[in-house]
Design brief:
Length: 345
Amino acid sequence: MLPSIHPVMELRGSPHRCGREYGRQNAEILRVFLKTIIKPDTGRLRYARRCWKIFSQWERPIIGFVRGMAEGSGLSLDEIMSIQLHEEYLHLPHCTAVGVTGAATRDGSAIIAQSWDGNPALYASVALLRIHTNAAPAMFTYSLPGLWASAGINEHGLALVWTSSGIWPKVRPREGVPTFALIAGILGCRNCDSALKLIRRTRNAGCFIFFLADAAGEIWVLEGTPGRVEAVPCRDLATRTNHYQCGDVCRAARQKLPRASLKVNSQPRATRVAELAQRAHGRIDGRVMETIYRDHEPQQGLGICLHAAPGPYLTLDSFYAVPSKREFWIARGYVCRHRFTRYRV
């Protein structure tokens, strides 16, 4: 049993300097991640180069971090961009998200949460970052190799969690800003309003379902396909797994869900997490959210905590953000085996 806490890396300075130091300290794991998970062939590298042309005109702090990462790690920009395009290459049906605010909660404070289900090979590669730059708000992030802002919260209380989507059938990405880079850009915003403005002016490359929350208690659910993002306000409670629920996005993605099973479990998990959240409506706080993410019912593989399921994914971590308190709580691995630990920006 590994320790119940993740290593935390501190980065300070300009975005370029932070990226360079991140790349230097993680050079080996970045190369391992690239070669074993991304596996960029000629076609993927060409696609990464086309995305770079668009990305390089986007948000300067994020561009600076990526350039610095390439320098520090010794990888090429095409290779680093290929890592940023992880979701566009490999988007798979995993993760379960919940957002609650107002009347759904015990004290009115917004909370957004998710299980991070994924490739078991990545379990030992997860880290946490505290980033203090002179060009963006300080942030605390959950990080996979090279994907330095996979989820997180910033000093203003803006937080983001999310799930994968655009899977049935798989939606082809287009040239644009990678999903993981978009997350880093969003965490550079002050609140939901400024984040929505950023998203509307961004040419997004892939698919996602984002949950955004800010210190004022506002929550938005964003369902995205390449070139289209639909934003829905969460009045009190929202849940998602890996299929779209917004009509326009469903039609744009031509979504047709396969028959539910232990291996294709987005629908059963969606039903289960909605049931658990509705059952606790009006009294949800951090402790209740933790209980939701420890769920194994009605059977392993159809509940929220996945560790003995027949499918290829395991729960690597679970976490929730409380924007009003600038808190990010994480339980490593199977939530039924580890306590949640509180972190702040």
